[in-house]
Amino acid sequence: MTNTKFDIKNPVHFLALGFGSGLIKPAPGTWGTLAGIPVFLVLVWLAGVGSLWYSTAVVISFFVGIYLCGKTASDIGVHDHGAIVWDEIVGLLITLAYFAPNIATVAIGFLLFRLFDIVKPWPIKALDKHVEGGLGIMIDDVVAGIFAWLGLYAIDHYVDLSSLVL
After folding, report:
1. How far apart are CA 6 and CA 134, in angstroms?
2. Closest residue by Cα to residue 161 from 114, 116, 112, 109
3. Cis peptide before 28 (omega within 30 of 0)
4. Are 123 and 155 spatial neighbours (Cβ–Cβ below 8 Å)?
5. Taking a C-beta distance cutoff of 8 angstroms, is the pair 47, 107 a contact?
6. Residues 87 and 134 sit within 8 Å (Cβ to Cβ)
7. How many other β-carbons are positioned within 10 Å of the β-carbon of residue 17?
8. pLDDT tens per residue across span 94-117
9. Which distant-in-sequence residues (6+ apart) come within 8 Å of 93 by Cβ?
10. What is d(CA 139, CA 127) in angstroms, rounded to the nearest whole number?
């Protein structure tokens, strides 16, 4: 991966690259997901855990992400370049939705999201392979986020993660 194709001064590229985190090697998707943690914390601070405002912000981030990721991929001529990580940020926001912001929740959610994003069980792999453009870049991470949320919910059912405070 070369960084020369990206214009980090372009706000579309800057956001699609996860504030530049997608340019960090190795494992830009992991760095992009890590960049999602402060986004999550700020969003919870502004909107509250499980609020309509949080959910609205995530939905808006998804639709904005379709444009950001699609435009950036088009600009550099590479579909779903590894450095484009806005999709990871949105996937993590989905994973952590409705959970208290504490170390256990964030760490387990992070690990679950990365697991589903990397392994790509059905239908994630099919979506990643067959859906084009910005939607294609975003949708597999949205579904990985949903799977990770379900896993986090199951864990929280047996271990009360909300009792652990950040």
Report:
1. 16
2. 109
3. no
4. no
5. no
6. no
7. 28
8. 999 999 898 999 999 999 999 999
9. 36, 39, 40, 43, 57, 58, 61, 145
10. 7
Residue 19 lies in domain: 11-163
Number of domains in the chain: 1
Given a contact cutoff of 8 angstroms between Cβ atoms, the answer to whether 117 and 141 are in contact is yes
Evaluate whether residue 4 is within a structural domain.
Answer: no
For 89, 92, 108, 151, the CA distances from 69, given in Å and listed in that order, are 12, 16, 26, 27
Per-residue tokens: 147:
């799977």
Q: Is 5 within the bounds of a domain?
A: no
116 domain residue, yes or no: yes
Q: What pLDDT, on a 0 to 100 scale, did the predictor assign at position 49? A: 86
Residue 127 lies in a domain: yes
Q: pTM for the whole thing?
A: 0.93
Provide φ and ψ at 54, rounded to 5°.
Answer: -60, -50
